[in-house]
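Lab notebook: predicted structure, single chain.

Context: the supervisor wants predicted structures on file for every construct in the current expression panel, including those that have not yet been purified. This is the next one on the list. No modifications to the sequence; it matches the entry in the shared construct table.
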Amino acid sequence: MIRSIEQSDHDQILDLNQNALDAVGSLDNEDLSLLVKKADQAIVVDTDGDVAGFVITLPQDADYDSSRFRWFADRYDEFVYLDRVIVSPDHRREGVGSKLYDELPEDVPVALEVYEHNDTSLKFHRSLGFRRVGELEHNGTVNVMMLRPAS
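Prediction complete. Output recorded below exactly as produced.
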């Protein structure tokens, strides 16, 4: 079942996030609450009460202090920023990621960044129609900036 993130999901989401720091930035409960408040989309795939995965997107006019978000805002007039998407290791290869990406808008470009060393994610996003549109070095890590054009 796909549904909105609820307060009761926060512990599971934070656990998933903190166990994926090789691919996403760190979050604490306060950060997550603020992010969900600013989001235009904050959803989970719920499998019998277990958060199998989640996605959080932000509108282009969000008040969001992120160099990666600003990189897109400085270059594109219209986009949705995919801040993070994580699938639980217990639910990989079950179509959870595909379900989350199916929920992304198709009529607006979707922008995201992937760490340069994350070959699996880069390959996955290219297969979904995302293309490389630049790079940004942030805290010593090279972020590959990717965009999926509107359909």
